[in-house]
Write a structure and sequence with these properties.
- The chain has 139 residues and is of the alpha/beta class.
- It has 2 domains: 12-39; 58-133, Nucleotidyltransferase, domain 5 (2-Layer Sandwich), CATH 3.30.420.270.
- It has helices spanning 20-36, 87-95, 113-125, and strands at 4-7, 10-13, 61-65, 71-75, 78-82, 103-107, 131-133.
- Strand 1 (4-7) and strand 2 (10-13) form a beta hairpin.
Length: 139
């Protein structure tokens, strides 16, 4: 019930907001935060450093997708032309049983993204574990 003030002839209500409950709640929250803040331990993030980085692989299989969507498999100094169907079997043969050998896909700028994704999908369905994309930094 709002406070009533009687002045003379009539009774009028007070049109002011009572701030006391608001201040009480804020002080209780302040005390709670002050008590719990020292108990919270900051988490430690383990960032990678240069010393922890893995070494470069000594053997990388590279698949090059040309402008006309032809595929070429490069292994060291040797390169062979491929069909889209023969990509998985050629990579498996080039890996020599080592499934951890990385395969890098390089594509020309004008090649559709769909062609690159199809090659990636074919390799991953064939069980190739490490498939990556080659990128060229802008100048």
């Amino acid at each position: 019930m709002p406070g009533m003030v009687s002045r003379g002839r009539g009774r009028r209500t007070i049109n002011e907001i009572n701030m006391v409950p608001f201040i009480d709640v804020m002080l209780v929250l302040l005390i709670i935060f002050m008590v719990t803040a020292p108990l919270v331990t900051p988490s430690v993030i383990d960032l990678p450093s240069v010393g922890k980085a893995g070494k470069q692989p000594d053997r990388v299989i590279q698949i090059v997708i040309a402008k006309d969507d032809t595929l070429e498999l490069k292994l060291k100094d040797k390169s062979t032309k491929l069909n889209a169907r023969d990509v998985a079997s050629a990579v498996k043969t080039a890996q020599d049983g080592d499934a951890a050998t990385p395969v890098v896909i390089s594509a020309d700028r004008s090649v559709k993204y769909e062609s690159v994704v199809k090659v990636m999908d074919t390799l991953q369905r064939a069980g190739v574990q490490r498939v990556g994309l080659s990128v060229q930094l802008g100048k």
